[in-house]
């Protein structure tokens, strides 16, 4: 059992609580960026002892037997038995409840260790925003010699910038917010492109190897596809409410439109260890239970620098 201290506020909490993805199970307790201390351990637990700092991300169980689960990609469980940390049902059919709370109980196979040198509150967003950007950047071999775009400077986007920069790629941020340009450069962007300026896309057509789209609202994907080189990839991690329209002409240049969902437990631990080695955490604003609604409204207005973390001891 983990005594929860901190929980990051992900835009997915808002999408799901407001049933924007049509899959809400109420009553819902959101929160899947959980950091706390181990309060109790079962008799068979070997990885953790009482008092350790531990973390839970977006999943707490899966079938553990299919090819994806065996490959350590439990989020893609082929039997559809991934148990998400909240808004999901466990193997007994009970609703799972997330990190905007006091305690969480999970099998140690789905519990992560946070490197001791990292600030626990600022580590919480690594559990979703961190792994969701780390995993596709690794999968598509982002590194030196590659030109990489990150679309949207929110919770996911700012972690995408940090990782792409740490992996050595030439990193470009696309933002709708002029006020974020200076911060983006400090966070790891080599270039920042303001997508509200007339004709911004033409100058960059056909020049990107990989673009990671972290946008939570409807926007035109055809423009981003036009920025890819032949064989380049646009990977969606943002999940807007409505489906996107794609013109066939946008992908005829042998371009790839793909997507990625969080990351497996093994890779999440690898990401946390990488963050420990490179001193990477999230840039956070702390908030309290009485201000959660205000925090959500600011997330929707793209007005957070760059992830809210709930102090779960604030009740
Ligand atoms: P966030 O903090 O709200 O960031 C989203 C960013 O998108 C904003 O900061 C803004 O960046 C940009 N944006 C917002 N509205 C826009 C619009 N109308 N047009 C263009 N850009 C706009 O959200 P987040 O927590 O990072 O999550 C982002 C998305 O990823 C959400 O849909 C979330 O559900 C999803 N998600 C997916 C996974 C997965 O496994 N695939 C995991 C976690 C989250 P600028 O101000 O820079 O333009
Ligand atoms: Zn999330
Ligand atoms: Zn499985």
Ligands bound to this protein structure:
NADP nicotinamide-adenine-dinucleotide phosphate, zinc ion
Q: Count of helices?
A: 9
Annotated CATH architecture of the largest domain: Alpha-Beta Complex
Structural class assignment? alpha/beta
Shape: globular
Structural Rg: 19 Å
Number of strands: 15
Strand content: 15-25%
Number of domains: 2
Give helix and strand order, one letter per element, not per position: EHEEEHEEEHHEHEHEEHEEHEHE
Instruction: Report the uncertain regions.
Output: none
Describe the structure.
It is a single chain. With 315 residues, this protein is an alpha/beta fold. The chain has two domains: 159 residues, Alpha-Beta Complex (Quinone Oxidoreductase, Chain A, domain 1), CATH 3.90.180; 130 residues, NAD(P)-binding Rossmann-like Domain (Rossmann fold), CATH 3.40.50.720. It contains nine helices and 15 strands. The strands form three sheets. Strands 1, 2, 3, 6, 7, 14 and 15 form a seven-stranded mixed sheet that branches. Helix 9 links the parallel strand 14 and strand 15. Helix 4 packs across helix 5 and helix 4 crosses helix 8. The two termini are 20 Å apart. NADP nicotinamide-adenine-dinucleotide phosphate binds next to helix 1, helix 4 and helix 5. One zinc ion binds next to loops.
List keywords for this structure.
315 residues, alpha/beta, Quinone Oxidoreductase, Chain A, domain 1, Rossmann fold, 2 domains, seven-stranded mixed sheet, six-stranded parallel sheet, 15 strands, 23% helix, 22% strand, globular, binds NADP nicotinamide-adenine-dinucleotide phosphate, binds zinc ion
């Amino acid at each position: 059992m983990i005594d929860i201290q901190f929980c990051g506020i992900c835009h997915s909490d808002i999408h799901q609580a407001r049933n924007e993805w049509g899959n809400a199970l109420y009553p819902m307790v959101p929160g899947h960026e959980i950091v706390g201390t181990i309060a109790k351990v079962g008799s068979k637990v070997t990885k953790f002892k009482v008092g350790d700092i531990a973390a839970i991300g977006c999943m707490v169980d899966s079938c553990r037997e299919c090819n994806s689960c065996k490959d350590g990609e439990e989020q893609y469980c082929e039997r559809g038995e991934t148990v998400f940390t909240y808004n999901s049902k466990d193997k007994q059919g009970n609703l799972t409840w997330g990190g905007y709370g006091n305690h969480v109980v999970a099998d140690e196979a789905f519990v992560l260790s946070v490197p001791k040198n990292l600030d626990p509150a600022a580590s919480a967003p690594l559990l979703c925003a961190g792994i969701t950007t780390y995993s596709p950047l690794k999968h598509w071999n982002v590194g030196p010699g590659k030109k990489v775009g990150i679309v949207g400077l929110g919770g996911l986007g700012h972690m995408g910038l940090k990782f792409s920069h740490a992996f050595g790629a030439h990193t470009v941020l696309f933002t709708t917010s002029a006020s974020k340009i200076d911060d983006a450069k400090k966070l790891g962007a080599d270039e920042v492109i303001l997508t509200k300026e007339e004709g911004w896309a033409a100058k960059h057509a056909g020049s990107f190897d990989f673009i990671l789209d972290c946008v939570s609202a409807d926007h035109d994907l055809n423009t981003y596809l036009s920025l890819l080189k032949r064989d380049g990839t646009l990977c969606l991690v943002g999940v807007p409410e409505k489906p996107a329209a794609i013109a066939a002409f946008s992908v005829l240049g042998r371009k790839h439109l793909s997507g990625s969902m969080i990351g497996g437990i093994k890779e999440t631990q690898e990401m946390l260890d990488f963050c420990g080695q490179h001193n990477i955490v999230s840039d956070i604003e702390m908030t309290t239970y009485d201000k959660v609604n205000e925090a959500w409204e600011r997330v929707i207005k793209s007005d957070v620098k760059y992830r809210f973390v709930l102090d779960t001891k604030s009740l």
